[in-house]
Amino acid sequence: MKRTGPLIVLVVVLVVIGAVAGHLLGRGAAGGSGDTKQLTAIVGSEKLAYFADPEVKAALARHGWSVRADGVGSRQMPSRTGGYDFAFPSSKAAAQEIEQHAKPAGASVVVFSSPLAIATFQPIVDLLQSAKLAGRDSANVWRLDLKALVDANRRNLKWTDIPGNTTRPVAQNVLVATTRPEDSNSAAMYATLLNQVTGGDLNATAKLFTDQGAVDTTSEEPFESYLRRGTDFAPMVLIYEAQFVDHAVNQGLSNGQTLLYPTPTLVCEHTVVPLTPAGLTVANLLATDHDLQRLAAKHGFRTADSTLTAPVFAKVRPGDAALPDSIAGAVPDPDYQTQHDLLTKLEEKMA
User: From 55, 120, 145, 318, which residue has the greatest number of CB atoms within 10 Å?
Assistant: First the structure.
């Protein structure tokens, strides 16, 4: 009986040690960062760099979250939301389309925005200016006149038709390389702009897509080709401004890389559609947490707080001009039904 007390103490100690060890192992199995819970998200490809950023991962982990992001074209998302906690397309219209097909766990959340832009090269900009397709605005920012581009495409203007052209002596139509409107938000929004400047001429709009031949399905693919291959890939590539800013700030510009803004342009509101309660929590976190918004600005996105964007944009001067503080005269982000009707008719023309 004299040994009963020490034996009980020993048993209690072993139980406590086992419980602590089990807790620590459980924490490690959850992801190695406390009680972090992992979510899965389907996101526009232009946001993959943001979610892969170690600082973003750390900021999310401080709130107990880890996000695995899978990239896909925004307009492919409605049929691929199964098993995800949230979808993060590149516009309100794309978010509304997802809402039509999924069962959201709450209201969609606008996290940040980015206007459409065109990645190009300074010698190409000079050539476009000589062809009266591009010029500087009052803020010294380079603009591509979409109406003039459409008119040039109607008459099949080729690069070799531009007088004095020794920069790109190629007998190809003067075009902006895009993704497919049926797959990707950037091309769908470009179609919206073209539809406006043509006054609803779907034949003219379709021609600017079909003249390109085979194209990519996500906005990141042509931008990566632009960075790797330069004008051998395409002289002008439709992107989100954020992609160019992210590259300029975090990798640096080279080989005359510069930026054009289409006139008119369109500001795309990158919007999270929460598909689970956890997805809703993280959606609100992405939109409100100061560090996560600051890091969004670091990757070139325009945040609601312009003081976060300003120091990042100040580092980028494409074409020796500051990036515009705001996007004046932008076409409103269309609603789902308006865009759906346009793209349905456009796809029939392109078939």
Answer: 120
Quote the DSSP letter at residue 322: P
Q: Tens digit of pLDDT per residue, the chain (351 long)?
A: 444 444 444 443 343 344 433 333 333 333 344 589 999 999 999 999 999 999 999 999 999 999 999 999 898 999 999 999 999 999 999 999 999 999 999 999 999 999 999 999 999 999 999 999 999 998 899 999 999 999 999 999 999 999 999 999 999 999 999 999 988 899 999 999 999 999 999 999 999 999 998 788 888 999 999 999 999 999 999 999 999 999 999 999 998 999 999 999 999 999 999 999 999 999 999 999 999 999 999 999 999 999 999 999 999 998 888 899 888 788 888 889 999 999 999 999 998
- Burial tier of 138 (Cβ tally within 10 Å: 0-12, 13-18, 19+): exposed
The boundaries of the domain holding residue 299 are: 7-111+269-313
Looking at the structure, tell me whether residues 185 and 331 fall in a common domain.
yes
pTM, two decimals, is 0.88
Structural domain contains residue 2: no
- For residues 40 and 148, membership in a common domain is answered with no
Question: Quick one: CA torsion of 89, 94, 98, 104, rounded to 10 degrees?
Answer: 70
In a domain, 1, yes or no: no
